[in-house]
Amino acid sequence: MKGMNAAVADDKLRKLGFTNIQYGSQDENDTVVLMLPNWTVTKQSAKAGSKMLPDDLIVLTCTKQG
Question: 43 lies in a domain?
């Protein structure tokens, strides 16, 4: 998900069946992730390819597109 638009990442994860997705900001001035299309994923809590249950927490850290 790294480098992906947050709205696209959210859509992909939900289509895969994940239900517990949270977003955090790495930006000092924009601390709340609102309007996912305006954000880009910079980090993810789960390693790519790791096995997870649909209700496991996934945290995506984002930066505001500018």
Answer: yes
